[in-house]
Backbone:
């Protein structure tokens, strides 16, 4: 009788030890899963690595990057009203790709266009922000038609284009497809250079006109 009781107790301990062992392995597996999951979470994706690389390539070509917020004029009505019923202007954080003029450039056209599908002037789908316009007339249909062509060739997800005293800028978010398939930087560089050269020609013409007066 005693032997049977001892065997029963021994068997119970073996089951207990086996259960503890299984539990230990389960805990270890969970710890490893959480650990590797955390590492995977903080590791950059293929797209993020490619974006970092193309921004570096852009800088090598003289196109500098930064960030700024741009108003989303096409936001839905519910996105432009707070929970308290107040009207707000929704803004998106965007990346800026800026191509500068030569240092000798003077009086280039300056303007700031923001995407707005209801606008027709100066370009369909784009609004002149803050009426900031110098160096070119709003009525210069030929100039704006050319600008429209260059903007159409720019990478998609462009939210704003700026022509300022020091250069021209594309502002928006990089398209995943364009980045992965290596189209983004090619399209960006070509369109920004074309817009820069257009403005430089107007700047040079303005200088020549001043010299003849």
Residues:
């Amino acid at each position: 009788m005693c032997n049977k009781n001892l065997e029963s107790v021994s068997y119970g301990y073996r089951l207990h030890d086996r259960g503890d062992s299984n539990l230990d392995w389960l805990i270890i597996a969970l710890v490893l899963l959480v650990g590797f999951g955390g590492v995977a979470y903080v590791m950059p994706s293929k797209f993020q690595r490619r974006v970092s690389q193309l921004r570096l390539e852009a800088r090598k070509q003289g196109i500098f990057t930064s960030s700024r917020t741009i108003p989303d004029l096409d936001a839905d009505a519910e996105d432009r009203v707070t929970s308290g019923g107040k009207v707000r202007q929704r803004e998106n954080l965007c990346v800026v790709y800026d191509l500068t003029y030569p240092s000798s450039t003077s009086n280039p056209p300056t303007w700031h266009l923001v995407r707005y599908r209801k606008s027709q002037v100066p370009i369909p789908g784009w609004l002149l922000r803050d009426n900031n316009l110098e160096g070119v007339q709003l009525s210069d249909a030929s100039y704006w038609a050319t600008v429209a062509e260059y903007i159409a060739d720019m990478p998609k997800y462009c939210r704003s284009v700026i022509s300022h005293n020091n250069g021209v800028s594309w502002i928006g978010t990089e398209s995943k497809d364009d980045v992965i398939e290596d189209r983004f930087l090619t399209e960006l560089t070509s369109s920004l250079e074309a817009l820069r050269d257009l403005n430089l020609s107007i700047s040079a013409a303005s200088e020549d006109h001043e010299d003849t007066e």
